[in-house]
TrEMBL record:
Residues 196-294 form the HTH araC/xylS-type domain. Keywords: Transcription, Transcription regulation. SMART domains: HTH_ARAC (SM00342). InterPro entries: Homeodomain-like_sf, HTH_AraC, Tscrpt_reg_HTH_AraC_N. It comes from Paenibacillus hunanensis. This is AraC-like DNA-binding protein. Pfam families: AraC_N, HTH_18.
């Protein structure tokens, strides 16, 4: 790690600690910007990532997408270009050197605006690629990240400057090694664009029965082509994707409401409470009642979310 990047990480870490002095996830005054602080390793946290850019100032984290495992720390950044059910775990954190992270969510529209407003070369429409990837952090990218974080100390300037600084970050990402992959989600007609629309449909209506032929038609693909492209993007089949989203939502409901597991099973789309219980235990390591009891004993009524 170069001396410049080391200095930048030290500055970013100080800014995050300033605005997020306590452990947890802090929603900032800048829309879609979150700051995260943990002083010890965490248990695995299950969540659906929205499209986002994550940058670590201190510590390290593992992300699991289906059977794939990605690790990243201060020398890397992580991008999720679509809604994805992932498992995250902070694997390096201490009182002396806590895990400190910057997370910026973005939309397909914002990516398209940057492409249309700059002289970036419009990429060709490639075949679908994985929607979760780790890149190498560059000093100019960290400069933009620090500028946006510093803006939190100038609340009167946020409404005008924050959109400009966010565009700068996205512009730097589109210039980077994974820029073409990121741009694909905004290029109407590309395989990634069409799969993204299907993913949004599934995550919005996860409780509804899954008809692969209808999803393939929505993506303007044959069923076999749709399956191939969907798995390339998400590392799982449409049915596996829906199952993960359903089970994560069921766990959230069970933690936040006094609800019966069988009722929750039907709410998230299961027709069989016993099948729900089996699949829940397979994913989270214990049946619903035992899992929720253990979580509430450890964390109270708030699910441990590692953004």
């Amino acid at each position: 790690m170069s001396e410049r990047i080391y200095t930048q990480h030290h500055e970013l870490a100080a800014l995050i600690l300033h605005h997020c002095p306590e452990e947890g996830v802090f929603q900032t005054a800048v829309p879609s910007l979150l700051l995260i602080h943990h002083r010890e390793m965490t248990d695995k946290a299950y969540q659906v990532y929205k499209p986002c850019f994550c940058c670590i100032a201190s510590g390290a984290k593992d992300i699991f997408l289906a059977n794939e495992h990605l690790s990243y720390g201060p020398s890397n950044y992580l991008i999720a270009s679509m809604n994805l059910p992932v498992v995250g775990q902070v694997v390096q954190a201490s009182q002396a050197e806590p895990y400190l992270s910057f997370k910026l969510e973005f939309s397909q529209t914002q990516i398209l605006e940057v492409l249309n407003e700059t002289d970036l070369t419009q990429p060709t429409r490639e075949t679908a690629r994985r929607a979760l990837f780790v890149g190498q952090t560059e000093p100019t990218l960290l400069d933009a990240v620090i500028r946006l974080t510093k803006l939190l100390d100038q609340p009167k300037d946020i409404s005008f400057l924050a959109p400009l600084f966010v565009k700068e970050i996205l512009y730097k990402l589109l210039q980077g090694g994974f820029g073409s992959m990121l741009a694909q989600i905004a290029l109407e007609g590309s395989s990634s664009y069409r799969i993204r629309e299907v993913i949004e449909q599934i995550t919005r209506h996860y409780e509804q029965p899954l008809r692969v032929d209808e999803l393939a038609e929505m993506a303007s693909m044959s069923v076999s082509s749709f399956h191939r492209n969907f798995k390339e993007v998400t590392a799982m089949s449409p049915l596996q994707f829906q199952k993960q989203v359903r089970l994560q939502e069921a766990r959230r409901i069970l933690l936040s409401e006094s609800a019966d597991a069988a009722d929750v099973a039907f709410r998230v789309g299961y027709e069989s409470a016993s099948q729900f219980s089996r699949e829940y235990a397979r994913m989270f390591g214990a049946p619903p009642r035992a899992d929720i009891k253990q979580l509430k004993q450890k964390y109270g009524n708030i699910l441990n979310v590692n953004a």
